[in-house]
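ok trying again, last paste got cut off:
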Amino acid sequence: MLASAALVMLGGWSLTQAAGQGSIAPASPSPKFGASLDDVPAAEASQALPALDPAIRAKADALFDDDSQVGETRALYVLRDGEPIYERYGEGFGPDSKLISWSMAKSITAVLTGFLVADGQLSLDGPAPVAAWERSGDPRGAIALRDLLHMASGLEHVEVGDPVWKGDTVTMLFGEGAQDMGGFAEAKPAAAQPGEVFNYSSATSVILSDIIADTLTPSQNPEARREAMREFIHGRLMEPLGITSLTPEFDAKGTMIGGSIMHATARDYAKFGEFLRNRGVAGGQRLLPETWMRFMLTPSANDPGYGGHIWLNRRRPPGADEALWPDRGPNDLFACIGHQGQYIIVSPSQRVTVVRLGITTDDEFPALRRHLADLIAAL
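nice, full thing came through this time. structure:
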């Protein structure tokens, strides 16, 4: 039964789509996967938008009109200099529809980690505070937050199994690890030295979420852990950025599923993208140090296409599929990317943020990337 559920949920899941998945213990009432909260026809958004260059509009509209190539686009929202210039939704969706983040959540988890590092409660390069790794002689005791954020912890992990339900991520989210995802992820043995190998891992982001919760509260009561995380996210991220819809989900232990499952509207995802574009500043106030933003957006040692829990528009190592389009877009372009084609794309040199949400299968991804690259180039 778990295997069947995983297959239905994951479809053609692949590592290069920065996948994450699953739903356990919602933090508050949230939509069914991929479902809209609204019963509205396909339409332009209600807010007045400036006149748009027809060439740009054509590239944007193509993400809806060429659905046989790119899959179903449910929301497309484009900002220039922080102001919307294009907003459109698929049938049944609208500005108030909360849509799933999938692995875009990883970048939000990285920002939450950055707040605690800035507060002096966590250290980027000190040993990660995981009790299971603190025994004398345990090689995992050398794992730092930097290693976790670079997907280079050295922990044994199979992101995508063959068949898919044999992967560690499916086991963590749907199988024996589902009740305590952090404990499941942290129990994995070392397979390499910290910082030695890039290994994309949704479990790594759950470890970070577990560390954040343990830092915020000493309580192991699930509701206390959930409440501490909700209050932290609201006070440090949502309220300062003007985000109202962001809804994370949690496992039974009260650990946020920080690698896979949050819900928000396209407009609120764009606010997060703008926060990153402005390098940690919102409303004229610096919320994250410039040093943390520089860390997130600097290529990691083992995969130049990946920074601190975020994808960069850089060429990846031989054999790795490109996540973005390094031959076409600006070098400073970066993106939060999730399963089935969820994107928050930020191009600082163009002063642009683009949010695309929808359902795209593996074989449609090359066309989706081309369409998104075409849109960014037109902007």
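cool. The mean pLDDT is 89. The domain at 15-159+189-378 is CATH 3.40.710.10 (Beta-lactamase).
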